Amino acid sequence: MKQLVLIINVDFILCLLSYVSHVDGRELLHHGFGRNRQRYHYYNLDDCGHEIKFVEKHGNKSSRHAQSYLCQNMFSLKHKRHGFQQLHRNRYFVRHNANSVVEERNNTKQPHVIHWPVKREAVVEGDLILGGLMMVHSREDSVTCGPIMPQGGIQALETMLYTLDKINMDNLIPNVTIGAHILDDCDKDTYGLEMAVDFIKGSISNIDEATDYNNCSSKGHKKKVISGVVGAASSVTSIQVANLLRLFKIPQVSYFSTSPELSNKQRFEYFSRTIPSDHYQVKAIVDIVRQLGWSYISIIYEESNYGIKAFEELDDLLSKHGICIAIKEKLVKDSGVAEKIAYDNIVIKLLTKPRAKGVIIFGSDQEVAEVMRAVRRQNVTGVFSWIGSDGWSARNLVSDGNEAEVEGTLSVQPQANSVIGFEEYFLNLTVDNNSRNPWFIEFWEDHFQCKYPNSPPTPYNKQYTKFCSATEKLTKHTLDFEDQLQFVSDAVMAFGYAFKNMHQELCGSKPGLCDEMNPTKGADLLKYLRKADFIGLSGDRFNFDINGDGPARYNIIHFKQYEPDKYKWIKVGEYYQGELRLNMEDIQFGIKNPNPPESVCSRPCERGQAKKYVEGEGCCWHCFNCSQYQIRNPADETHCINCPRGTIPDIYHENCQHIPEDYLKPESPYAIGAMSFSSLGIVMTLFVVGVFLKNNDTPIVRASGRELSYVLLSGILLCYGVTYALVFKPNDIVCGVQRFWSGFSFTVVYAALLTKTNRIARIFNASTKSAKRPSFISPHSQLVICGILISFQILINAVWMVVSPAHAMHHYPTREDNLLVCNSYTDASYMVAFFYPIFLIIVCTVYAVLTRKTPEAFNESKYIGFTMYTTCVIWLAFIPLYFGTGNNVQLRIASMSVTISLSATVTLVCLFSPKLYIILIRPERNIRQSMMPIRYSTINKTTGSAQSSVMAAVIVTAATCNENEKVIKNVSNENITGAY
């Protein structure tokens, strides 16, 4: 049959598809059928067996028109392109099957020109056909297809064929075999899309059997429908192909495409994959970075859907964990491998951030290999530590020749086991026994570095000077197997079990294909495919998740130098169900530097230090110390805050610690001393009270003003008791008792003393004016007067309690003090309690001065005067001591307690010791006559006068202090003398 060539662009394909599938070409374009108006492609369109006429018009770069009559002139195409003739002159077309290659050149003969690429296909006949899209050749910038890819290409292709053999051999579907139609996408999305068009030809030809297109073949040939497609490998290609296959409802299962975007089933309804999504790989990478303690890293990602989507998720997740990105650079992807200068610039850019030692590379093996070569060219080997994605981990294409640059890499690789029996199968393959793989000769030549006899020329075998002997043997020692071939096998097995379940349900027990499955309906097959659950050839159970993705299981692998100049990839951990398990002891970032490098912009500040960020940098800062009484703000690490009063920073300035409460504790030496003094005073006072009660009716007790003396002793007891109120831990009740008790006790003492001195003063003032006895000098009157004086203090305290209730509080005289005191302690409000007693003291002192010249028989006034003078001295000394000890609460309270007790002691000793002396030591003087002085016993011996008579009477009255005792107005000389 005559072979012709038609050079068309993607617009022609769109037009063709729109005719046979009744879908508008623009709509196809809208659904993602990629096109490039500046690229031209080769297609064999002679399936109908009719001549295709190609017409060119020459001249002044005008538009060229090509008109072809296809299938009895079904439609015409207009092809508009400039420079059409010269661009495609000397082209040829190659058509081949599984066993042979037939070439037909045009009229211009150029036998020495290598025509590349050559479109080939691997075909396995079967009742059901699976398409396969493999990256048999690597991507190259200068040509469409690069050199052969041994691991991810040939081995993946053979894994698909091996799995099909196992399925057919095990008769998984009764009397039904599964075949294959496998094409090469050269790891390019545009080229892969062109290849994928072959998969839809069968679907197109079987859409409407009534059209003339289906009957145009003279042989009555009818292309088989592709039930599903295994592939592609890269995410970029899979996205393009998935958009096309979705239009024709052809299920697709990829084995290496990991882009998170492909999990969107609204866009990629018919796409599934056996490998997990990069969404989980990104999480694993971030967890590795965190475990290494890195906070400042760089990211290199390829400019493709695979890299861009991963970077977006990395950027978001890293920021959540406070990890900053120093440099982010793209790797050119879609237009092939870039020039060396592009990779050199990336490395130079990394060097601008020398503190970012850790670098995440999310890309494919070819680009990463160029990065490693650029690292070597820039002489920075060992400067950076790499975290790799599955796109280049454990790939010889990256590590071979770049071992020193790749050393220390930690990489995330989807967890996969070896396909059982595949290694033995592959090692037994030869060119002679593997005719169904049209690329196997290229693999053989690349592996053994020789030219196979009669093999077609390629840009890569022309350099071989020796010929292959055809006796070479593949060995395990010279061959590196791809670690992720399980995903290829699982993809084929998933289709196999989907066909099996579909056959059981639609065809029942009937062997062979039934009408319901001839051809298979893509929508129905997709349902069975997603429900596939099986034990694969690797021994692992497989099933798709809700998004049609494989289970999220990853191995963490490490490129390690285990001996000088000997490297290997080893497993150092795994990531499973969101948990990272990493064996840090097995990780060695360099044989001379096994510890993980530091990848931080700024080291963490010391505890309690705050940060001042460098402008424009989120992880770079300067550290500064907080002041003495500040801590770093827990909510804002860039600021310091003052500790509240009553607290001070800990030694690290991280937390404010409470200062222990300071108050006069009963067990303190100050309290013990004050209570000892008060206790002694209480004992002395009780002793005096006991003596007075025992001698209650004796003249000395009666002459001292018995009732007021008891009041005075009660006040002294209260003064001593104030100490015990002061040493209790302050609370609202204790503070109220202290406030009332301290002033009240003094008021009782000095109210009684004032009443005494006032009585004496009034008696002697009255004696100078008349013989009439002064009023209100009786004991009952004296008690009433004393009670009135005391009531004023009670009233003052009551008003004070209402206006300013007593309560305990914390007082902070300095930043390091925390005094638990009563509120009156913090200011001069205690003077309210002592204001009235001080007033009484002053008045008593004045009366003591006024009565200092009274007769000796009334010498108690002298003792009162001495008591008041001493009391004034004590209080004058106490006031500066009280206000000078504001920061020492124990000393202050103790000094107040001692001052009050000392004042009571002075009163007790000065007023009652003379009386106790007479009662206990000189009882003979405890008689009535002894209460009068000797000089007054001879009053009547003088010339006598009325004044003298009155004075004698007053003396007796004053001495007896008993209103019930009769006053003798006329006292003879003898009687007075006898009384004395």
UniProtKB/TrEMBL annotation:
Residues in the signal sequence: 1-25
Keyword Translocase belongs to the record: no
Residue span, G-protein coupled receptors family 3 profile domain: 670-935
Compartment annotation: Cell membrane
Keyword list, A-Z: Cell membrane, G-protein coupled receptor, Glycoprotein, Membrane, Receptor, Signal, Transducer, Transmembrane, Transmembrane helix
Signal keyword on record: yes
Residue ranges of the TM segments: 670-693, 708-728, 740-761, 782-803, 828-851, 863-883, 895-921
Family annotation (Pfam families): 7tm_3, ANF_receptor, NCD3G
GO CC, one annotated term: plasma membrane
GO molecular function: G protein-coupled receptor activity
Membrane topology type: Multi-pass membrane protein
General function of this protein: G-protein coupled receptor for glutamate. Ligand binding causes a conformation change that triggers signaling via guanine nucleotide-binding proteins (G proteins) and modulates the activity of down-stream effectors.
Family: Belongs to the G-protein coupled receptor 3 family.
Name of protein: G-protein coupled receptors family 3 profile domain-containing protein
Gene: 5572476
